[in-house]
Write a structure and sequence with these properties.
With 205 residues, the protein is an alpha+beta fold. It is 41% helix and 28% strand. It is built from five helices and eight strands; from the N terminus they run H-E-E-E-E-H-H-E-E-H-E-E-H. A hairpin with a 3-residue loop joins strand 3 and strand 4.
């Protein structure tokens, strides 16, 4: 798709470093949670235009799971982790045992489990960013709906003023299968350019 923002080499290096740190954090926590080895490819981090957000989904009408975490402090906005129905069911079945499940009627334990997965994934990148700036993090909020509807949910709750959104794409290897997960960071009161400028100052002075 078009709509990607062209970044300079320093900004790309900074995002790559955050991705590497975040992935390292996530692999350890996920493996402990799943009680089996989990592999994560190095993530792809891009900055995309807000108006192109719905084009991120191959099938926007398909049921997906979204976990939203609000951050406040020096960086304000929403982290949204999105995973497919198949990915969600594989995680639940691996931990709680195989059975037929309907994502629209998960029980409290199943919802808590998926929320914790989102907390691990978003939290891994939030911790990588928090090495450079102070942030407070909300309790994860779970949303199960069509992918296109989930993407509109943050905008119904928060005023998003930035034109640019950070996209983190992860490839998971687990239970003999490969899954894709996406994390979107939707800035609320400051754009990604401000974030990158702060990270650049922290790194290079």
């Amino acid at each position: 798709m078009d709509g990607y923002v062209q970044l300079d080499e320093i900004s790309r290096d900074i995002l790559k470093e955050i991705g590497n740190v975040g992935t390292g954090n996530a692999v350890t926590s996920l493996s402990q949670m799943m009680e089996q080895p989990i592999e994560l490819d190095m993530p792809s981090l891009k900055v995309v235009k807000y108006y192109k957000m719905h084009e991120l989904l191959e099938q926007p009408e398909e049921l997906q799971t979204g976990i939203l975490i609000e951050v406040t402090g020096q960086l304000k906005g929403i982290f949204l982790f999105m995973l497919s129905e198949a990915f969600t069911k594989t995680v639940i079945n691996t931990i709680l045992g195989e059975e037929e499940r309907n994502l629209t009627s998960l029980d409290d334990m199943e919802c808590s489990l998926i929320s914790e997965l989102g907390n691990i994934m978003c939290g891994s990148y939030i911790r990588a960013l928090s090495q450079h700036m102070d942030m407070d993090v909300s309790v994860p909020e779970l949303c199960i709906d069509m992918g296109g509807a989930i993407l509109t949910y943050p905008m119904s709750k928060w005023v998003i003023v930035s034109d640019d959104i950070l996209l983190i794409e992860n490839i998971f290897h687990m239970s003999g299968e490969i899954f894709k997960g996406r994390i979107l960071f939707l800035p609320e009161q400051e754009d990604l350019g401000t974030m990158l400028s702060r990270l650049r100052e922290q790194r290079y002075g």
